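User: I want to check something. If I give you two sequences, will you return the structure for each one separately, not as a complex?

Assistant: Yes, each is folded on its own. Here is the first sequence with its structure:
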Amino acid sequence: MNEQIVEPATRSRSLGLRPIKVSGQLTAGALLLAGLAWVVRAVWEVRLAMAGEPASGPPDQGNGVHRALNGLEDSYHLVTSLGGGAAFLCALLFLSWMWRVRDNARALTGQAPKYAGIWVYLGWIVPVVNLWFPRGIVADAFRTTAPGRKLPVSVNVWWGLWLIGMLGGAGIVYRDSTDEIIARAYSEVWPLLVSDAAVIGAAVAGAFAVRAVTAVQVERIRQGQQQGGVAESAAAGTAEG
């Protein structure tokens, strides 16, 4: 009878838990890859600034007229395309990781998440709420999983630098075309480099944040498994007695 009571209770601890360790490792790696892509991007922007604008003017000459690109400009298009691919991969992995830590926090504690699941996606694109919802989801998952622990500094650093890059208009989501960015690199490269630095810093801090939040969930899951094993052993001993 005791064994029948303990076994469902033990299983309920792991019910709804999703593997998080590998997801966290992949997400942290993708963030660092995206950061590296933006380092390369910044290097190319410096090269454009040092080369100076050709006598023929910027690539986008207005009224729908675009001149032929030179070799350096063409290679910058390639660099930005590769960077965009790295950012897209990073976004997919990060969203998946956010969903997992949110669901695991609920499964581990039984507490309802502060933010509805739809905000894992919409929180990044809906105006105004995108200024704090994504950070809020990560912070809520950490605090629910590890009550009483201080939120890692890396979470706030990641989000602050992300906002600088985003609000600067030249961060990971550019409002200008690549040819327009080339023209900006020729005329005034420093705002681009500041934004690039913010994105790179956000990527590195984000990797540390992902590792920190993942670690507390892995620790909490391991503790639950150990407690479940002790309970099962105690139940088995009681049944034998």
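And separately, the second sequence with its own structure:
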Amino acid sequence: MTLSHFRHEPKEDITPSRALWFEAPGKAVLCDGSVPAPAAGEVLVRTSFSSISRGTEATVFQGLVPESERERMRVPFMDGEFGFPVKYGYCAIGTVEEGEPDLIGRSVFCLHPHQELFVVPAAAVTPLPQDLPASRAVLAANMETALNIIWDAAILPGERIAVFGAGVVGSLVAYLATRITGTEVVLTDPNLERASLAEALGVAFAVPNSLEGEFDALINASGASAALSQAIDLAGLEARIVEASWYGERPVSLSLGGAFHSRRLSIVSSQVGHVSGRMRARWSHARRLAKVMDLLRDDRLEALISGETAFADLAEDYPRILQSSATLLHRIRY
């Protein structure tokens, strides 16, 4: 589909490139556009894969980004405005075809919307390790979020950890937490079908109402305020609760009575836009992302990729992908 107000102005040495746009709440379209030849310090990337993770993209797609958060919710190389039309997305894997000589032919990761080809500053791409499949590197943005949550939760060896929500981010948080020596980690979700995912990742699984005892750190990645309330109920004395969900304009109810004050509980938010304050003095975004690439080498993480769609079919399939409860990370093939 061609929408004239989405097109770039004609330039010399331009290359056609289609992109996915959200035209209105609940409506996605593939739009014809173009990219210029890369200037000095830029690269032209041909996309191999991108990915959809239901949480944030669903909020944008449905037009639920609060006005107060619209500037902070902008992602690199987004086009348009909240609400609509907007070109949005934040995980692209591709091959550098033109630009900086040392990057030509390399597979790279970039925070970029769903688009066939794009031109960005060379500093905006991160080369993939040689042994990391490009098809798995689509988990990079989610792993970066999960790593930041782990830092915000300040998980220590031997602690009891509860993670609420067996979506992509919650599952990655539980996966990382199990790798800290001596931790007892449980991933909880009302969907019993997620038990097989937890098993594939080497994580214990439970349905929410079956949790017992007290926990040292609790992470809510479910997008449900009821899970946050349960985390408060299960938190031990001076335990740490991390709210990793993002609710957009949805209202959230939370009871802070009961033992919340007597147990001296802490609730902190976690958001990937800033490196966790616990690490920021030494860790840049680039260092954090390089570590993410190392962490993605584990073949078990393939279990988080729940489906794949050809880019040509993405506009038609996009609403179904978001609506399906079976969707974890959905991969787009170009």
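Because they were folded independently, the notes below concern the second chain alone. The chain has two domains: 4-136+296-333, 145-269. The chain has seven helices and 19 strands.
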